[in-house]
What does this fold into?
Amino acid sequence: MKLLYPAFIICKMAYKWDECYKQLNMKATTRWGIIGPGSIARLFARDLSLIAAPQEIVAVLGHSEEGTDAFADEFNIPYAYTDPSRWLEKVRPDIVYIATPHPDHFQHTLDCLEKKIPVLCEKPMTVNADQCQQLINAAKANKTFLMEGMWVRFLPSLQLVLNLIEEGRIGNVLAIKASTTFRAMPEDGSRYFDPEKGGGSLLDLGVYPVYLAQLLLGKPRSIKAIAKLSDEHVDENCSILLQYRNGAYAMLESSLIAESDAPAEITGDKGSIKIFHPWFEKASGIELTERGEGKIIYPCSWAGHGMQFETEEVLHCIAENKIESELHPLSASLDLITTLDEIRRQINVEYPAVEAVEG
Ligand SMILES: NC(=O)c1ccc[n+]([C@@H]2O[C@H](COP(=O)([O-])OP(=O)(O)OC[C@H]3O[C@@H](n4cnc5c(N)ncnc54)[C@H](OP(=O)(O)O)[C@@H]3O)[C@@H](O)[C@H]2O)c1
It folds into this structure.
């Protein structure tokens, strides 16, 4: 068994970002607004300090005053609001990062786009395909950048997997097995189990394995899903089987009630790749098996949580006046939520608040 560091991957990425920094360094500091100062926004704000070009958070919009003020204090943010009509009163950020519970993504993103403020919006960008299409239309009509925060797309670990597949090391991809699990406590107010907050394992966690399958195999020809629903009628866990025109398939799973440390497995006709747990975060390593060649393990490591990589892509796109990323285009977000809609239809999970507004 050989042990290799994926240094060439890091170098490849560093080269691209160096080019980006050259442009960004010529500009003033990028001034961020943040909506939804919760757990993931905290990691995002910390990872901003890992970006070489200067970044500053100039305003935050939250829900409770206490939580919003605490976030503003922690990150030295001069303006903190809980009233969306007053937010942007004093400063207009260069870009807004949105990390509210999923049903709120739509309106916050639309408001920013209509003011021509670029947006990086957490996954899933919306809770259904209709909303996603409306946001895409708004980004195009306002010629304003929009990207779903599908941060795994930009992690060096997934970049390595894509490179290995592109080099033909495992041949044609025949099958994918991946799960994303997290044992959430069903305490009062938890967004994970609340249908009003887009609760359920699929939109929070299942979005990752479904995205991995889409990235490697494209749009599925057929979708089959089953789930265990909670008393509140959201999916506590969900099992998904996707099939593709060329006969390849994906077996995917998400769960809020059981935890698994199974790696994601990609099997090809010449070999296989395992992304060790947690494959959708900072994987402990990647194992490549080439038929007749043995195994290579690539340990993975980088500073911070890893959200700086998607942020670098956003900054790069904005510096080039793009309204979408080529690496995670808006059509990919639409395809993803279209698949999630069909899964949700099959498992009978509805979000009454969203349906009521749209109905
Ligand atoms: N990229 C990733 O790895 C990752 C990881 C986790 C989550 N996420 C995504 O990020 C989003 C947030 O998840 P989270 O775990 O960070 O949730 P969280 O900890 O509950 O944070 C949500 C934050 O949004 C605030 N909020 C709620 N409604 C709001 C509104 N209308 N306007 C402004 N702020 C509002 C909440 O305030 P209160 O607490 O005062 O209500 C809280 O501060 C979800 O869509 C999730 O899918 C992404």
Q: What stands out?
A: The first helix runs from residue 7 to 25.
